[in-house]
TrEMBL record, chain A:
It comes from Lates calcarifer (Barramundi). The lineage of its organism: Eukaryota, Metazoa, Chordata, Craniata, Vertebrata. Belongs to the RNase PH family. The keyword Cytoplasm applies. This is Exosome complex component RRP45. Its main location: cytoplasm. Residues 333-344 have a biased composition (Low complexity). It is found in: Cytoplasm; Nucleus, Nucleolus.
Automatic annotation (TrEMBL), chain B:
This is Exosome complex component RRP40. Keywords: Cytoplasm, Exosome, Nucleus, RNA-binding, rRNA processing. GO terms for molecular function: RNA binding. InterPro entries: Exosome_RNA_bind1/RRP40/RRP4, KH_dom_type_1, KH_dom_type_1_sf, NA-bd_OB-fold, RRP40_KH-I, Rrp40_S1. The keyword Cytoplasm applies. Belongs to the RRP40 family. GO terms for cellular component: cytoplasmic exosome (RNase complex); nuclear exosome (RNase complex); nucleolus. Residues 205-253 form the K Homology domain. It comes from the Eukaryota. One of its GO terms (biological process) is U4 snRNA 3'-end processing. It is found in: Cytoplasm; Nucleus, Nucleolus. Pfam families: KH_6 (PF15985), RRP40_S1 (PF21262). The gene is EXOSC3. Signal peptide: none annotated.
Amino acid sequence: MKDTPLANCERDFLLKAIEEKKRLDGRQTYDYRKIKITFGTDYGCCFVDLGRTRVMAQVSCELVAPKENRPNEGIMFFNIELSPMASPAFEQGRQSELSVKLNRQLERCLRNSKCIDTESLCVVSGEKVWQIRVDVHMLNHDGNLMDAASIAAITALCHFRRPDVAIQGDEVTVFSPEERDPIPLSIYHMPISVSFSFFQQGTYLLVDPCEREERVMDGLLMIAMNKHREICSIQSSGGIMLLKDQVMRCSKIASVKVSEITELIGKALENDKKARKAGGRCGFAESIPQERITALKMEESPVEMMDVTERANDIVQKAEAPPQTVPSPVVPVPGVGQVGQGLQNTWGLEDDDEEEEEEEENGNRGEEQEGKASKMEKYEKEESRGGDVVEISDSEEEEVVILHPETSDKAPVNTGSRSSSHQKGAAKSKKK
Amino acid sequence: MVTESCFFRTAETHGSVSCVSPLFQSVKCQQQHVSGSPAVPMFSTLKDRVGEVLLPGDEFTCDTDDTISLTEHVKPEKVVCGPGLRRSGDRLVVCKSGVLRHKQPNVFWIDSQQRRYVPAKGETVIGIVTTKSGDVFKVDFGGSEQASLSYLAFEGATKRNRPNVQVGDLVFAQFSIANKDMEPELVCIDSSGRANGLGVFGGGGLLFRVSLGLVRRLLAPHSEVRSDLEQLFPCELVVGMNGRLWVRSSSVQQTLIIANLLQSCDTMTAPQRRELFRRVKQGVL
């Protein structure tokens, strides 16, 4: 089936909006959409939500004969599936141009960067090595599939455990997970892809383009980087000429984004580990068979307001500083981590949330703080309760890590020191 | 405070949804009760269920008496079924999930919240012109196949005087043929040959999608959503029955606000919506 065509008026409007530094979903130019990382019941299964883009990665392993020229190295295999479920434009069973492009980019990002120790996957040199296969399935397409796929793939690899093996003479024994604990892969670093789209021949730059933005963009630059600020792959497509400055700027932005995302992945993995240790219900699959209808649920779309910054600043100056009561992430129940709620904004780039400012306009800051305080108390209670009794974790959002690009509680501080946080981000990147 | 309001919203929707499932059960028991009791006229059973949530597979039976009285004059009972209800033999089967609605004197239909559009004759939709081939345009309206739109079906168009329509333009058109076995056909004129609001449009506005339920709510006479929106700021709004909305306002910012508001209205209850609109109004003015 053909994709819905893009009307001329949509194209014109999008370009006009981008010129005015506005985006359809109220984001700023350098903002990512909300990233959510969920794990399946099995090891090596990971779901990543990037706004409405949704991707699943599943890692599996198999004992095979190694390649002749590399007798003591394991084999990595990457496969991207674009199912028609993600978008009606994707066809089943045929390798489209897009899927080949994504596949190659993922391979370059993860295999060629040597982020996984393939030599540790060798069982018997020249005879038996592990083949690690990463299947990435696109579940919903709303732009920026590459970033979602790269996050899902590397998280799934980090989450994956392969069975333990023992060698006695010529005999290789593979132990089931009951007999011996499975072994995680040894991963040196985590390359993460960050996409930049260019408009008007490179005049305008957006991070994390959504589907409609991808349709009107002139060029795309994908930078895969790890948190040590090493570029693992860089690819420009769409045929636009980029200046050296632009690429440097993109790589700086990418380094900030990558460190954020790496931190998020780390947190998600840690939460999952804790939940598994606690032995409660864990994983995405476990949260499904609940008799709940979720059809009426919808992510709230932020509404952008204009001319609120001045008024918000005014209010910020009058109001007292919000209480610094949240030094660390609040963990409501074991296995739940919420990044971006009640935390200091660490995105380091300018972001402000209009809805907050809008609420401040109402002048009910006091109420808000009270509400926040009581909510935190509740969280603390839950936390302590969760510490004592382990089984009550029947929350649906188990080991779901939500990353909000904007900080909810610290918005006034944020808006006030927007420029300074920007500088901070730049300074941080320079320091590194 | 996005996260919190989001949190509360989901909690509320969960609350309202979870009360659906007991309702579903009560639907079932009542169903057995209805089919068990003899000779219940269909009209009154339908009338009883107006406003309830029905699910595909629910049935209404029309049990007739075995004996027909000769002396009394029996008036045949007539019921008009709208979308979501289907006749199957002597039964009436629900084929969409939604709320049963009734209009005097005897019209019943299911009000559902779907997003897939199925064309119906006489409905006005927003389409995107995809190809110009010979004397017809192909128009994508979000259905299973594309509709054809003759270039003569515009106001004042003749063989010589062709309308100026480009590929990618938006048209507001009405279905003249909408038949499940045939290619649907659109026209941009009414029966007297006047445009009457139909035709090519769409400079400088934004097109977006909402559910068909919201579209019907917007188009209903004395629509609350519309009157709430009217109080915010002046805008032009084109509503297609296929779930596409087009909006244009004085600035890009305002257009985006309206688009985001309408998209979030889809899943909101009336008080939530009023609260949101109130906040937006205070924020802007």
